[in-house]
Every structure is written in structure tokens, then in C-alpha cells.
Amino acid sequence: MAENIAAQSAVSSRGLGLSTKMPAFFHVLEDQWDPTSNPQGIVNIGLAENALMQEEMKGFLNSHLNVESHALTYGDGFSGSKRLRESLCHFLNRHFQPHVPLSPSHMVATAGASNALECCAWALCDPGDYILIGRPYWTTFRTLLGNRASVNVLDVNFDGVDPFSSDAVELYRETYMQAIKKGKKITAILLCSPNNPLGRCYSPEILCSYMRLCGELDIHLVSDELYALSVWENPTMEDPDQFKSILSFPSESLMNPQKLHVIWGMSKDFGATGLRIGCLISQFNTRFLNACESISLFSFPSSLADNAVAKLLADDSFTDHFISLNRARLSENYRHVTTTLSDHGIPYTQSNAALFVWVNLGAMTKGHGATDADILEILNREKVYVTSGLTYASEQPGWFRIVIAHPKHVLDEGLKRIFGAMLYYETRITK
Ligand SMILES: Cc1ncc(COP(=O)(O)O)c(C=O)c1O
Predict the structure, then answer these.
(1) Average pLDDT in the 366-394 region?
(2) Which is higher by pLDDT, 425 or 54?
(3) Per-position DSSP letters for 98-148, written without gaps between them
(4) Residue identifier of the C-alpha nearest atom 13 of ligand 1
(5) Helix (H) or strand (E) holding 310
(6) How far apart are CA 384 and CA 386, in angstroms?
(7) Cβ < 6 Å from ligand 1: which residues?
(8) Which residues of 143-159 are buried (b: 16+ CB within 10 A; e: fewer)?
(9) Which long-range contacts (CB under 8 A, 24 or more apart) does 160-163 make?
(10) What is the atom index within ligand 1 of the atom nearest the CA of 277?
(11) What is the pLDDT of residue 311?
């Protein structure tokens, strides 16, 4: 049947399947709001991008991009230049404080964190395997692991348990046990630390519990630390956990160190999703990194980005200043957004990391049973783009993720439209 349709549509049945899996936000990129050039456009406070530091980043890149002949070649191979990997090590040794200092042989540079995640699917799993992820989570993980490498995500349900607690770790164990009874093969736990969408960090004790669990079950632990340095001060949160890299623990006492892997990149902490520079770190598993290298020709970072980032990450005074300014701006924006939400009686959960506030718009529909899809419809009508809990496999309906890393005029316009949408809903149901 699929073959017949495929023949008619001039693509293979595989192509046909892929053609239905287009990212859902491209229409937003085509019609982005701008107060002067496109006032009728869509206000985008949904896509996880950090627009707060663009001037500083442009300043650095425009003054440091100097193309050398090396950049016009295959360079040092397909996994990042030697210089880039040295700079990544220098930078991450300062900020992640790994228990065993990083060296270039411990990593491959990738075209963004997405590529690093897909490498995990290709080289740690077989087709049909499962990776455990706790809800809510960024469901693009499913796309990255599944679309080409055919690896599945198995949701871990928390049923009201705090996702950052030790009870949550136990729920991973239970999910694992139930799955293997059904004949599923679980290869790894994927932890998003700091967490997207909840915007919180895991405590050192909980990180150790995850490592211990992976040790007991003899599975991999992949820690996606893409938001590691975007942790800000939130004075209203009591003693919030700070970021701690999983690399900073003596892993050998907790799990098989060959099965511990970390992902980081420039996309979020440096507000540069377009540079497409990420890295996959695996300090004790050369075979895994070799497998990743073997497929690196398919997507490796451009030499221009490689070159610029190598310079940037080696420049301590620039990166120190950039990170602290980014944190201060995120903190201020968090304060601004949450104060405005509170003024309008919209509940949210506290956060101190990544770029997000997790907001309960469902609470504004006053028990009228509005689904996430209903709320999304009225938000679309007001031309404001935020992502709903559906995008994060949320267990509770009504939750939406707002990205706070935008200039205030963008946030204010987006919030105004959200409030307008909720008001519209209220007047519609009370008619
Ligand atoms: C947790 C997480 N991992 C990976 C990615 C992909 O990042 P990149 O743009 O570096 O591929 C994202 C992007 O939103 C993310 O939120």
C-alpha cells in the first residue's frame, strides 16, 4: 500500500514517511513579528533560542573571522579541527570541572547537539532499542533518535512525583523492569541536565543516583548538558540546585565509565543555534567515538564555524564576560516575565536554568476542559507562538513553555497576545 502511494508520489516509501515529519515551526520562521517591518507577524517566544547576547556574539565573530587555507580543506578530519577540540577541552575543563580532565581524544565535534544525540542512537543502540526519558521532555529527542537510526523513546511517567527527586529515579527503574518483562531492550537513560522544558538542575545526589542506576542495570547514561551555563539567579527560589556536570563525578565508583556520555554545544549558552557546533564527550570509550567518526562525513561542522568557535572558547576574558552577562540578562527577564504573569494571575513553576518558564495556561480556562489543542488554537489566532505540553509529553494538560531569552519588547508583545488569547477564551465560554 505504502509502496503504491510512494510510486505515485515520486518518492520512496521511506521518503514518503519522512515527508510527513517536517518540523512544526517552519511557518513561524517565515512570518516572524517585527514592530516595524512585520507588525502582523507571529511573535515567536516558543522556539528555544537565546536572542539576548546577539550583539556581543556578532561583535566577536565579525572581528575574529579570518579565513586560512586550512579552512578550505577537509581540515583535520570530519570531527572538528584539532584546534577546536583543544579549545572545547580548555573551556569545558574550566566550566564543567571534569573529574578526569578532558583531552581532544575524549570527544568528537558535531554539527550541533542534535547531531551528537543522533550519534548516540547510531552507535550505542541497535534499531528497535529503547532509551528512557522522564516526562515532560523535549520530544524532538524522538525525532533525533528515531527518524533515521530507528531508536525509540520510552517515556517514564512520574504521576505527580517531583521529576528531580530520588522517587523519580526509582520510577526509571520500575519502567525499565516492566519494559524488559515485555521483551523491550533498553539501552540508555537520557537525562536533560539542566532540564528542557522545566528549567531546573538536578542535585549532585540525584545525578549520582542516576549513575548508580545505570551501573546496576548496565546501561548507558547520556547527559545532555546543552544549557549548562545558562543558570541564573532566582531570588524567589529557595536554595535552587546549580548546574553540575555529570563529568565532575568519579564515575568508576558508580557505573561503567565507558557508558557515560555528555553532550554540549554553542546553541544555547552562546545563543548561536546557527553556528552548528556541538560536541559529544565519551572519556573512556574509544570504540564509540570511532563509530561516530565513521559517520561524521555525513554532517560535520563547517570549517568557518569551527575556526571562529575555536578562537572564542580559548578567549577566557570574552567567555567569562559573556556568560555572566547572559546570566544577568536571563535573571532579569525571568523576573520581568514572572512578575507580569503573576499580575495576570497565571500560575507557573519556578525555574533558574535554561531559557524557560513553564506556565499553566490551562488554569486560566477555569475548569471548562479546554485541551492543549484548544488553547493552541486561540494562541495561533492571536499570532503568538509558544509550545504546549504536547510537545513535551507532559503528563498534565494545560502547561506551556515560554522562552524568556528575548528582548523585553518581544516578550511584552508575546505576553500581551497570550493574555488577549486567554481573555478571548473567557468571553467565548461565558457567552
Ligand atoms: C535539550 C536539547 N538538546 C539538543 C538540542 C538541539 O540543539 P542544536 O541546535 O545544538 O542541535 C536542543 C534544542 O532545542 C535541546 O533543547
Answers:
(1) 91
(2) 54
(3) -SS---GGGEEEESHHHHHHHHHHHHH--TT-EEEEESS--THHHHHHHTT
(4) 48
(5) helix 303-314
(6) 7
(7) 48, 112-114, 138, 192, 196, 224, 226, 265, 267, 273, 278
(8) bbbbeebebbbbbbebe
(9) 163/134, 163/135, 163/136, 163/195, 163/198
(10) 10
(11) 97
With a CB cutoff of 8 Å and minimum separation 6, the contacts of 194 are: 200, 201, 225, 227, 228, 230, 231, 243, 353, 354
> Band of the pLDDT at 2, cuts 50, 70, 90?
low
How far apart are the CA of 14 and the centre of ligand 1, in A? 25
Measured from the Cα of 117, ligand 1's closest atom is 4
| Whether residues 32 and 157 fall in one domain | no
Mean pLDDT score of the chain: 95
Candidates 29, 229, 267: which one to mutate for ligand 1, based on the most atoms within 8 Å of Cβ? 267
Contact, 209 vs 364, CB < 8 A? no
**Is 12 within the bounds of a domain?**
no
* Distance separating alpha carbons of residues 199 and 226, to the nearest angstrom: 12
Is the pLDDT score of 300 beyond 90? yes
Residue closest by Cα to atom 14 of ligand 1? 48
Which among 261, 291, 318 is the end of a domain?
Answer: 318
Ligand 1 centre distance from Cα of residue 348 (Å): 23
What's the average model confidence in pLDDT over 171-178?
98
Residues 32 and 98 in one domain: no
Give the tens place of pLDDT for each residue, 72-131.
Answer: 999 999 999 999 999 999 999 999 999 999 999 999 999 999 999 999 999 999 999 999
Cα 114 to ligand 1 centre (Å)? 6
The three cell numbers locating residue 428 = 467565548
Enclosing domain of residue 412: 21-55+323-426
Boundary-marking domain end, from 284, 318, 352: 318
CA 138 from chain center: how many Å?
Answer: 7
| Torsion sign across C-alpha atoms 309, 311, 316, 322 | negative
Residue 429 pLDDT > 80: no
Query: How many domains are contained in the chain?
Result: 2
Non-local CB neighbours of 89 within 8 Å, separated by 6+ positions: 101, 102, 103, 104, 106, 107
* Res 7 pLDDT > 70: no
Say if residue 335 is in the same domain as residue 230: no
